[in-house]
């Protein structure tokens, strides 16, 4: 289990935060998600053998946001 912090650009309201939380929480091996509008970030605890950093970023991008 590791913790990854992604920079997420493009979130402008609480609905965006919930969207990002939802797509990250849905990934296999994700056990904790904290998304901050103010910090433009998503902090995720995950089993990297099931979902790695690239999968996290891709899920956020597919939801319509920039992630790095
Ligand atoms: Mo808020 Mo985000 O109405 O795409 S959900 S701006």
TrEMBL record:
Ranges annotated as spanning the membrane: none
One protein family per Pfam: HMA
Magnesium found in the keyword field: no
Top-level taxon of the source organism: Bacteria
Record-given protein name: Heavy-metal-associated domain-containing protein
Gene3D superfamilies for this protein: 3.30.70.100
SUPFAM superfamilies on file: HMA, heavy metal-associated domain
Residue span, HMA domain: 2-68
